[in-house]
Design goal:
The complex is a heterodimer. By secondary structure, chain A is of the alpha/beta class. Chain A has 2 domains: 3-258, Purple Acid Phosphatase, chain A, domain 2 (4-Layer Sandwich); 263-374. Chain A contains 10 helices and 15 strands. Chain B has a domain at 370-490. Chain B is built from 21 helices and 22 strands. In chain B, the strands form 6 sheets. In chain B, strands 2-1-4-5-6-7 form a 6-stranded antiparallel beta sheet, covered by helices on one side. The two termini of chain B are 37 Å apart. The chains are: A alpha/beta, B alpha+beta. At the A-B interface, helix 9 and helix 10 of A face helix 8, helix 9, helix 16 and helix 17 of B.
């Protein structure tokens, strides 16, 4: 019997965007919207199971309203079950804690907290699925929690798909220089008995067929280090499909569906004096909802430089871009221009000529601006 | 200031007359006595003379312009604009003298009093004094221009300063304003930043931040520091929480492990406790049994060994005693032999002393002074003899007469007779006497008579003979020999005496003599030293053997006594052995039925120890678990709302912002350095531009190239044409002086107006001493000057006025032609 799963992770509800000024509340709210979109996609695509592979919450101390709102959104899932795995940000406290107790209280009967590293048959929910859960029990961990899945005997569930759910870094996929995020390797995952793994922590979608692993990524990007659209993974596990097969002979297929509200974009633009500066910047803005940080460079003649300054104010005022770094935009001034535009021997002429000869265009730009501001 | 209109309300003969001024050249033309000079004065006082005056000041300035001799005041109204764009001119009404009025109305408001002059001064490009000197040039002043400015260096300095600023700001960029704006930017960036140390002023970081006037650099720095502090705090809180969680997990696991162990092994522990006790008893019985068995075997052996040890000790004791007696006897013999050797040595030494004494006594003594006295007399005698024999005489005796009896005597030989026929040569030391027939010829080479010396010699011989007889010894040499001999004998005697003392030492010679004198030749009975050593060696060996035998005997005594004390007698020991065997068998049987040992333990004792340790640790583990739970809850509560990951992003952002501000800050400082360099260079030669301006006007006015030499006062003082020698200003022709003066005025005025503030240049008939050609050139230069500036040209010569065909004309009076 085939199973369809909508999988996500790293929702980080309750995240504060303290460095984003006025955007902060919008960005925080967008994470709830993205979760709603995940649920909506799951409903539209008639998914049996919604899996959240860790970090539903940004930290173990999120406000109770965040927990209640998350539970409410998840309760709107129309499939058989929502399975929630604690990740390294919302890890399980060794003695149980307020976060997951209050979540369990708020969530309905069709929400299952995967709070033990163990096989969890879902026949109770009429699902031909056994989950191999590997929850995190701390913010950091030098060893993964999926080891038990190497020796698990799957014979008790001959008719079930065995789906692993874990949270942590994957060698070659996730940046984990110090190896402190429960690191796993492709080889390890391949050697387990699971038909397919859903693994959170990495914020971009990956389908690692060699490891029979789907990394759903985050439904909503959370910063400029995630410059891809947010999304969820739609996973089908079948007994007769194509693709990698686990010990149980089942195959899976996965695809990403976009759920993100915002996109974070880092762009570099070298301005061309002959073109409209606003158009040049707008060209790198993917569309509405984009949060664009643009690094602008170029040497512009006086007119273009003046136009750029006006454009800059305009782009920031109407929030076309989030931030502009134009330290490298300089006003181009040649000795011929200086001789043409300034009286030889005048103060302005002497200053500008000296700076241009020293090839100090930052100072040329600064001096020229000050001259305009302080002219008689 | 741009003049618009001047009305002489009541000002000398001009009362009621008004003059309008154009924006460029205004020619005020009128015949002599028409009032041009009065107009000049009205203009000058309207601009520069406040009406609040003392009577004396009034008398010295404006009183002469009262319209009539009985008038007590003079009045004028001046209209002027600030600049060309000012379309609402200010109106100044001034009445000097009685009922003084000083009033300025502009833009609908009226001010009066001292503020009026302040407002007027503000409309001038230079200080009022400079303005009067440069811009208001009456006819008489023109000629004195050079002298006037040579004596007023402060005016020139102001003009030069204005000129410099004018040149510098010719692009509309004022160096002062630019520098000020730049400094404001630098202040805005660097406020409260210690540039030299590249840190906040006074090291005030975010723990004690500057609250006001924080510059961009410090602001960015604070932002970064705060972001870093937030990151540190978030990381710390997260680490603390992680540590607390880990500690809680450990505590929980420990408690669980201990509880499981205790629960699982509680019953086994109770059973095994008895088994362990039985094991201990069995082991004790076994030990006792082994001990008793050993005693049973040992006791009879020990008794037998003790008997043998007693016998050995006794035998060895007897041997030791015998050896001790033998050793004592050998020692006494050795002592007697030694005493006899001593006796013999003393006796020999005493004999030596006696012999030495006899030898000493055999040499008679010599008087103490004998040697010295004899030596002295012998020395004197030798000296006398030397005196007698010292000399070298050679006498040849020959006689021509054969019959003469010739006798010669020398100091070395007695008188002898010579054959007078045979000449003879005589040699003597100092005295030759030749007697020839009763005639004595004495040849003597000394100061003293030879006979006296001989007598002295003989006396000394007698003295020596007497002394020898007195001392009983012939010569000093013999005396010395005897003294030496006696000293030698005395030394021998002393040496023998010392040897005797050394040999005799503390020995009692009389006792030794009594012991050995009668039997001195008989050797006493002695034992060879070697025999004594042998006895001593044997004695040592025996004593050691005796000690060992005695120790062995004592040890066996103790062993046998201990056995007796512990076990009574050997029969009782046998009974005890039987009893122990029986007890051990019974205990082994009971132990075989006891509880089984859990796996993993080598012995029941090890298990019981472990169980009791775990049981003891359980309360502490439970307490630690509860504490860890509390600490974890506290760490959780202390966790901030922002994760370290978010903080890290903020730090990165703040770092980028600080780098950007630093880049701009560096740019501003570089720019400031360049500004300082440019301004320093400008100030190096402030007069250059004024010189250039003056040269330009002079060339234009004279149509000839003059070169000027500038005096120390900052004004040109000497001029030279290419075809003539250089002349001082005062030696130039009147016309040339006027040309030079006019050129200098125009240069100064242009320089003064360089600041951008306009002012009228008022010239009173400057062309009167110029030839027509120069007039045309001068008019052209003035017209060029006036293209962007205001000039009031006063003249009483219509042809001069005609040189300005485009000028605004303001006629006063009328010409009769």
């Amino acid at each position: 019997m085939p199973v369809r799963i909508i999988a996500t992770a790293d929702v980080h509800l309750g995240m504060k965007f303290s460095g984003y000024g006025e955007l902060a509340s919008d960005l925080a709210e967008a994470r709830f919207v993205a979760l709603e979109r995940v649920v909506a996609v799951g409903n539209e695509r008639s998914c049996d199971l919604l899996i959240i592979a860790g970090d539903l919450f940004d930290r173990v101390s999120v406000a109770s309203v965040v927990v209640e709102r998350a539970a409410a959104i998840l309760s709107s899932f129309e499939g058989a079950l929502v399975a929630v795995l604690p990740g390294n940000h919302d890890y399980l406290s060794p003695s149980g804690d307020r976060l997951w107790r209050s979540f369990a209280d708020a969530a309905g009967d069709r929400t299952l907290l995967l709070d033990r590293a163990a096989a969890v048959p879902l026949d109770h929910y009429d699902l031909p699925v056994t989950l191999l859960a590997a929850p995190c029990d701390s913010l950091h961990g030098a060893t993964h929690r999926v080891g038990y899945a190497l020796d698990t005997d799957r014979s008790p569930w001959p008719d079930s798909a065995v789906i692993g759910v874990a949270h942590g870094s994957i060698d070659g996929i996730t940046l984990d220089t110090d190896g402190v995020y429960f690191p796993m390797s492709v080889d390890l995952l391949r050697r387990t008995v699971a038909d397919c793994w859903i693994i959170g922590h990495t914020h971009r979608f990956h389908d690692l067929k060699d490891a029979r692993t789907v990394v759903p990524g985050t439904p909503e990007p959370d910063g400029f280090d995630v410059r891809v659209p947010g999304g969820a993974a739609l996973v089908d596990v079948t007994a007769d499909g194509d693709g990698e097969r686990g010990d149980g002979g089942r195959a899976y297929s996965a695809q990403m569906v976009e759920t993100g509200v915002h996109r974070f974009v880092d762009a570099d633009v070298e301005l061309d004096s002959t073109l409209d500066p606003c158009s040049q910047i707008e060209a790198v803005v993917p569309g509405p909802g984009s949060i664009v940080r643009v690094r602008v460079s170029g040497r512009l003649d006086e007119e273009a430089y003046r136009a750029w300054n006006l454009a800059r104010e305009s782009l920031l005022a109407d929030a076309t871009v989030y931030r502009i770094d134009d330290d490298d935009v300089q006003q181009l001034l040649t000795l011929e221009q200086i001789d043409r535009d300034y009286v030889a021997g005048s103060f302005a002429h002497s200053i500008l000529k000296r700076l241009v000869e020293a090839d100090d265009h930052d100072a040329v730009t600064e001096a020229h601006r000050l001259m305009r501001e302080s002219s008689l | 200031m741009i003049l618009k209109r001047l009305e002489a309300v009541s000002f000398a003969a001009l009362s009621g007359i008004a003059v309008d001024f154009g924006p460029s050249v205004t020619v005020v033309v009128g015949p002599n006595e028409s009032g041009k000079s009065t107009l000049f004065a009205a203009l000058r006082h309207s601009i520069l003379t406040p009406t609040r005056q003392t009577p004396t000041t009034y008398r010295n300035t404006v009183e002469r312009y009262a319209p009539r001799p009985d008038s007590t005041s003079a009045e004028a109204v001046l209209e002027f604009a600030i600049d060309a764009a000012d379309d609402r001119p200010a109106v100044v009404r001034r009445r000097w003298g009685e009922a003084a009025v000083d009033e300025l109305s502009a833009a609908g408001s009226v001010i009066s009093g001292e503020a009026v002059q302040e407002r007027i001064n503000a409309a001038l490009p230079v200080a009022p004094g400079t303005f009067a000197g440069v811009f208001l040039v009456d006819q008489a002043q023109l000629d004195r221009t050079i002298d006037q400015f040579s004596g007023r260096p402060e005016t020139l300095e102001e003009i030069v300063s204005l000129l410099r600023r004018a040149t510098s700001a010719s692009d509309g960029v004022s160096a002062e304003r630019f520098t000020r704006a730049l400094d404001e930017q630098i202040e805005a960036v660097f406020a409260h930043w210690d540039i030299e140390r590249d840190r906040p002023e006074k090291g005030r970081g975010i723990e004690n931040p500057w609250a006001r006037g924080v510059g961009a650099l410090l602001g960015a720095y604070y932002d970064l520091e705060r972001a870093r502090a937030d990151l540190r705090e978030a990381t710390r809180a997260e680490d603390e929480l992680a540590a607390a969680a880990s500690a809680l997990a450990d505590a929980e696991a420990t408690t669980l492990r201990i509880e499981s162990f205790v629960t699982e092994h509680r019953s086994a522990a109770a059973g095994l406790a008895r088994s362990v006790e039985m094991d201990r008893q069995i082991e004790s019985l076994r030990t006792d049994l082994e001990s008793v068995r050993g005693a049973v075997r040992r006791w009879p052996v020990a008794v037998d060994e003790l008997a043998r040890a007693d016998a050995d000790a006794e035998r060895l004791g007897a041997q030791v005693h015998e050896l001790e007696v033998a050793y004592s006897q050998a020692g006494a013999a050795r002592d007697r032999a030694e005493r006899m050797q001593t006796y013999r040595a003393i006796r020999a030494a005493r004999d030596e002393v006696a012999a030495a004494q006899a030898g000493f006594d055999a040499v008679p003594p010599v008087a103490d002074d004998a040697v010295a006295t004899l030596q002295r007399v012998e020395s004197q005698l030798a000296d006398a003899k030397a005196t007698l024999t010292t000399g070298d005489l050679s006498v040849t005796v020959s006689s021509q007469t054969a019959g003469n009896r010739v006798t010669v005597t020398t100091d070395s030989e007695p008188p002898r007779e010579l054959d007078p026929t045979q000449p003879v040569s005589l040699r003597a030391s100092r005295h030759v006497q030749v007697d020839i027939d009763g005639v004595s010829i004495i040849v003597d080479n000394g100061a003293r008579p030879y006979a006296e010396l001989v007598a002295e010699y003989q006396a000394l011989e007698q003295q020596l003979t007497d002394a020898a007889a007195g001392y009983g010894i012939a010569t000093s040499a013999l005396a010395a020999e005897r003294v030496a001999e006696r000293a030698s004998r005395d030394a021998d005697l002393r040496a023998a005496t010392r040897r005797l003392a050394a040999v005799a030492g503390e020995h009692d010679f009389d006792a030794l003599e009594a012991e050995f004198a009668t039997d001195g030749s008989a050797d006493p009975h002695t034992t060879a030293p070697a025999s004594e050593r042998d006895i001593a060696q044997q004695l040592g060996t025996r004593r050691q053997e005796l000690g060992e035998a005695t120790a062995r005997r004592d040890q066996l005594h103790r062993e046998v006594d201990a056995l007796a004390q512990r076990y009574g007698d050997q029969d009782a020991l046998e009974d005890r052995l039987v009893r122990l065997k029986s007890d051990l068998d019974a205990l082994k049987a009971e132990r075989a039925d006891a509880a089984a040992l859990p796996e993993g333990f080598a012995s029941g004792e090890e298990f019981i120890d472990r169980y009791r340790t775990m049981e003891g640790e359980l309360p502490a583990a439970r307490t630690a678990h509860a504490d860890a739970r509390v600490r974890h809850a506290a760490s959780l509560a202390a966790l901030g709302e922002v994760s370290s990951e978010s903080c890290r992003a903020v730090v990165t952002d703040a770092q980028a912002r600080l780098a950007s501000v630093r880049r701009r800050a560096d740019t501003l400082l570089r720019l400031r350095r360049v500004v300082e360099e440019v301004r320093a260079e400008e100030q190096d030669d402030p007069l250059t531009s004024l010189v250039d301006l003056f040269a330009g006007y002079l060339a234009e006015l004279s149509a000839t190239t003059y070169t000027a030499s500038w005096g120390d006062g900052g004004a040109p003082v000497a001029f030279a044409r290419s075809d003539r020698p250089e002349l001082h200003y005062r030696f130039l022709s009147q016309g040339t002086r006027d040309i030079v003066a006019l050129a200098f005025r125009l240069a100064l005025a242009e320089a003064a107006l360089g600041s951008g503030v306009p002012a009228p240049l008022v010239l009173d008939d400057p062309f009167v001493d110029l030839d027509p050609e120069r007039r045309v050139a001068a008019a052209a230069a003035i017209a060029r000057y006036a293209r962007t500036r205001q000039v009031v040209f006063m003249t009483c010569h219509p042809d001069h006025a005609d040189l300005f065909p485009d000028a605004h004309r303001a006629p006063i009076g009328s010409f009769t032609r």
